[in-house]
Amino acid sequence: MDKKMDHIGIAVRDLGNSIDFYLRVLGGQLIDRYKSEVIGVESEIAIIELNGERIELLAPTNNTTSPIARFIKQKGKGVHHIAYRVEDLDEALLELKQQGIRILENSLRINKHGRRLIYLNPADTEGTIIEYCDYPNQTD
Known about the structure:
Elements: E1 3-11, H1 15-25, E2 29-36, E3 43-50, E4 53-60, H2 67-75, E5 78-86, H3 89-98, E6 103-110, E7 116-120, E8 130-134
Parallel strand pairs: 1-4, 5-8
Antiparallel strand pairs: 1-5, 2-3, 3-4, 6-7, 7-8
């Protein structure tokens, strides 16, 4: 199955300062900014578009339970994940299973923009957090 880069997720401590950097210094455009208090997300998210590519800035909204807060505490701020867009997430999950790649079952969700996503187990990806996603209600 074909995969293409969808976005890069970046863990930040201060979303406002980070947005300012991406807009003022890099010339990006703010596409959306929203909070998700869903358990396992608990983040404020800013979507930045830069020359047709997307970056998600992720700031924790709960310093105790947010996975972004845990990531920053363990590894510091910076690249959190790389997301690959697939044509059909269900089919991609079957392909992963056949290849012996585990997923983080509790990470399966649909975000505000209709993107279905799930994270692969970093133990099977050489430590990189990889997201697979699709947009079932959108056409290119």
